Each structure stands twice: as structure tokens, then as C-alpha cells.
Amino acid sequence: MWGICSRTMVKVGMVKPCGLIKPCHLVKPVSATRVPGRYLTHQKGLPTLPVPPLQQTCERYISALEPILEMDQLTHTKELVDEFKKAGGVGEKLQKSLEKRAQKTENWLSQWWVQVAYLDYRLPVVVHSSPGLVLPHMNFSDKQGQIRFAAKLIAGVLDFKTMIDNETLPVEHLGGKALCMNQYYEVLSSCRIPGLKRDSVVNHAKSSRPPKHITVVHNFQFFVLDVYNSDGTPLTADQLCVQLERICSSSLQDNAEPVGILTTQHRDSWGKAYISLTKDKTNKESVSAIQRSIFTLCLDGAMPQVSGDEAYRSCAAVQMLHGGGSQWNSGNRWFDKTLQFIIGQDGTCGANYEHAPAEGPPIVALIDHVVEYTRKPEMVRTPMVPLPMPKKLHFNITPEIKKDIEEAKQAMNILAQDLDMRVTVFSHFGKNVPKAHKMSPDAFIQVALQLAYYRMYQRCCATYESASLRMFRLGRTDTIRSASSASAAFVKAFDDTSKQNTEKVDLMEKAVKAHRSYTNMAVSGQAIDRHLLGLKMQAVEEKVSIPAIYTDTAFAKALHYKLSTSQVPSKTDCVMCFGPVVPDGYGVCYNPMEDHINFAMSSFNACKETNSAHLAQAMQDALLDMRTLLEHTPRAKL
């Protein structure tokens, strides 16, 4: 089974793109000054991604399988692994080839990774790949407020873009080591292009004439908005307000065909529809203008009315993730665009990003900057010069394209109805409690998730948590495998009345330490998943038969992530959300703040075994029970 990807399974193994920095509290920006070519100098100073030792990866692979396999399966897999790694065997040959590749390339993994994890992946980017991000509810509730906030947001993005253009972005650090900043240079002015069998990504920021416009979409109609004056200065928030008002007043009729909904399709279907759409010269020019734009701004129409904070947050997450279906805002998007900011008339705000060019941290850093910018008091502006009218993009809709749009609507509505998204705020404590007990907050939350899942299903499952490889040049992600022998021992003992509390605390500490240890191993390029993927890709490149460890049922089970998770640390009180990566799994994203934790949990309604609300409740119970255990168990004085 290899068709389900995104943070997901592909022909060469399971992959999950949403990579976020671990541990978040160690990422420290340092001050920056303008130095020509500073970015390139910084990049060249970073180490290259290592190829871990074969023996080490094989041993760690077996360890990772222990909590999720039956003993007879594990014995069989051990035999296959022993065969794979033996002296002079296929594993050793592939390892040597991979080491040679590492010597010749900037990053032996990155090109393969983008191809395998994203561009070859054919399920829709919506839900399956592109994450959404929900910002706190903003203080406006009408069209004028929506436009005013949108104008300030655009100005904030352009302010951040200046740092990118001038190469004055603060370099981030993890544990005292500088991180690769490349992804920051990939998120603006870039776009995914559909293909018949494989997509591509273009970045227009690197062209000889970088774009000076954004795309604004309102009532399913697209507009080009130039955001720089003729002298190269960015438009002010006041100027942007005038332009956005013009766009809204010239797109009041809502009978336009929602061409944007085509981007929600299965990639093969969209690849075919794209050829048909861009045969027409007007359409081709309109699509090109969207693709070339710095980013897309979606001014949304109404949202479903819901009552209660939790229902509102969950509904907002759905708007950010997929737009709610064709009757709401799914057509008011261009999901191939790397970065889309979404602003509703009722104060709902957030973003959606196409995952191929970047992981979460650059997106979150940009959004943190923008939110901070929108909160600054506005400067009084001098009278404005006349501005050119924003240009409306036109589409000629043939019967064939109309049919594609209708099919896209139907498929999107089925997907929207299938996704069960729950955004909850765990308000009892945040990072403060684990830190008070000298435990990593991320590890504490991950162990609690293992306990919640075990209580629901009476078994452990393969769990994915993304780890950043940005310590290395062009680094993307590897997998933190949160289900360990130590976490399995802890969750099995927790509700066992025959066990003493002191023993349970000891097992909890071991589980947290095991997670912390795996995290450190992953961020330093010594985890197993990308190495195993690299060896398999090497076999594909050399056209040798795929080794038996990859066709083993244990490998499929190890990569069937019923829990696909990411920590998204942010200064802003927001939460990122994404869909599950397998039909019978969950997507779990969380932002741990000092005294509360924001959670987004997703599952598919089609699967009778999964239920996002049940997991959210089990997670709350697990966190509270773990705190109670720690507080009520006297600790031995060392």
C-alpha cells in the first residue's frame, strides 16, 4: 500500500512533510545586518547532511519496530535485516553508493525528498498535504474591517520580504548551531505547477524580473494588485486599503465560475484540466499572473454559523485547510500557491501553504512577524498619489473546463464532508508543568498522546513526529518515532492497579527521556527513516531489485502512521492543522504555550474506528492524569 502520501506513504516509503523545529525553545534568532552575499556565505558555512552508519540504522530500525510488531513478525524481520546488512551484501553496496552521492551533492536527500514526498504525490494537496494555520480571532466583523486588516497584513508581509530581499533575516539557531535559512527564500513568489505524472515548483523571486504584485481573490474572482510604487517603495496600508476596496466593489457579483477549485483536484485530474485550461491565451496569461505573484490573499465570504468557542475554532480550521466545500470558500483559493493568506469578514484569519518548498517554521516566523506588524499603531499618511486600477484576471470557460470545475466541486465536497477536524484549547497547563518537573514539554505531550491512543485502542501504533534537519545545508525533515519500547512500557503500566505510583513515574521519566534522545538523534541527522529512504532510492537509481526489507509487511506497518504529528511553536496564539496521512489515522498538531496548549486533531468520518473528539478527550485526560501522578508521587531525593 503506497498511494497515501503527504505526510504520508509513497512508493519508496512513508513520508511526512510538515517538519517543525525540535525543540522549539532552543531556536534563537540572532541580530542581523546587511552584508552583500551574506545568505550564500552563511549557507556555505553549514555542514552537509551525514549518511548514518548502516549497522546503526539497522539496529535502530529493529528497536523502532518492537512496540508495534508481534514477536514472530519481529523475528522474521530481524532475519531480513541481518541479510541486508551483512558484509558484501546489497545493503553495504547501496550504502557505499549513497556515501558517494553525499560527497558530490549539497544534500544527498533534498532533491529526492521534494520529488518523492511532494511532486510525485498524486492525491489532492488539499487536506492530504497542505497545512492550514488558524490565527486568533481578529477584532473586526464587517467588510471595512476585513479590508483594513488585509491592507495591514499585506504591508506586514512586504516588510518581512524586505528582510529576505536584503538578506538581513536573523539567522536561527538550535542548541547553539546555526540553521539553514534556505526555506525562507522559497516561500514568496513561488508556486506548484501540475503535471500529468509529476508536478514541478517554480520560484519567480530568482528570475531577472521578480514579481511586484500579489493575487487577490474575492467572490471567486482573481485580481492582480501591484504592491510597489513606481519608485520601488511598497504601498502603504492606506494605499492598499484603497486598492482592496476597488477590488471588492468590482467583484460584487458572485456568479463567476470558481476556477480556483480546480486546484483542489487529484493531481492527475488537475494536470489534464490544466492543459485544457491553459490552451486558451487569456486563461494562460491569467494563470501565469497567479503563479508569478508574491503570494495570494483570499478575501472570504460568509462562513457557516456555529455557536461556542470550540466549534468556531474548528470551523475556522476547516476554512484554512480546505475552505469548507464549494458552497463556502473552497473556490476562493489557488491551492498550488505556496502561500495563501485567508481573511474572513467575521474576523476569522489564517493561512494555507503548499508544502513542497518549505516546512512550518519559516511560515510561522513570517506569520508571527505579520501579526506583530498588524498590531502596531498606524502612522498618519500624507495625501496619496493616484494609483492604477487593480487588473482583473479573466477566464474563458469552455464546456470542457465547466465539466472539470463541476467534477472538482463534487470531489471537494466529498472530502470536506469526510474530514473531522477538532481544534481544542487544553487550558489546565502548558509548557510550565513539564518544565517544573524538568521534562521536555514536547516529549511530555508526545508521551501523553501515546497514553491517550493506548487507552482508546489497547495497542501502540507507528507514530510520526517531524524533526528539522535545518542544522544541515538544504535540510528538510526526518522522523521522530514517538512510539518506543519505553513509551510502550509506560502506557501499559499506567492504568495497572498492581503497579506502584513510584514505578509509573520512573517509567514516565524513561519514556520522556527516550523521546528526547530520539529527537536529538533525529535533528543531528542520525535517525533511520530518511536513511532507509535514501538506500531504497539508490536501489531505484541503480536499477537493482528492491531489497526484501522494503517488501516486508513489517516495513509497511512501520510506515502506516496512525498518529501523524507536529509541534508548531509560535509566538502567536495560533494552531496549525492538517489531515491524517492514512485512512484509519489521525493528524495531530499542537502549539504549546506557557500555560495552555492549542491542539488540532483530524480524522476521517469514513473510518468507523477513528473519532477526533474522542482522541481530544483522551488526550486531555492523559495530560491531567500524568500531572496528577507527578504531583502525588513523592520523588526520591538524589
Report on this model:
With 638 residues, the chain is of the alpha+beta class. It folds into two domains: 8-30 and 46-79 and 107-117 and 421-632, Chloramphenicol Acetyltransferase, CATH 3.30.559; 144-418, Chloramphenicol Acetyltransferase, CATH 3.30.559. 42% of the residues lie in helices and 15% in strands. The chain has 20 helices and 21 strands. The strands form five sheets. It has an eight-stranded mixed sheet, with helices on both faces. Strands 15-21-20-18-16-17 form a six-stranded mixed sheet. β11 (296-299), α10 (309-321) and β12 (339-343) form a beta-alpha-beta unit. α4 (90-104) packs across α17 (529-541), α14 (441-457) packs across α20 (612-632) and α15 (485-494) runs antiparallel to α16 (501-523).
What is the beta-strand fraction? 5-15%
Can you give the helix content as a percent range? 40-55%
Choose one word for the global shape.
globular
Number of domains: 2
Topology readout:
Layout: E1 8-10, E2 13-15, E3 27-29, H1 38-44, H2 54-65, H3 71-85, H4 90-104, H5 110-119, E4 132-134, H6 143-165, E5 172-174, E6 177-178, E7 190-193, E8 200-203, E9 213-218, E10 221-226, H7 237-249, H8 267-278, H9 281-292, E11 296-299, H10 309-321, E12 339-343, E13 349-353, H11 360-374, E14 391-392, H12 399-418, E15 419-426, H13 432-436, H14 441-457, E16 463-468, E17 477-481, H15 485-494, H16 501-523, H17 529-541, H18 548-551, H19 553-558, E18 563-567, E19 575-577, E20 586-592, E21 597-604, H20 612-632
Parallel strand pairs: 9-11, 11-12, 16-18, 18-20
Antiparallel strand pairs: 1-2, 3-5, 4-13, 4-19, 5-6, 7-8, 9-10, 10-14, 12-13, 15-21, 16-17, 20-21
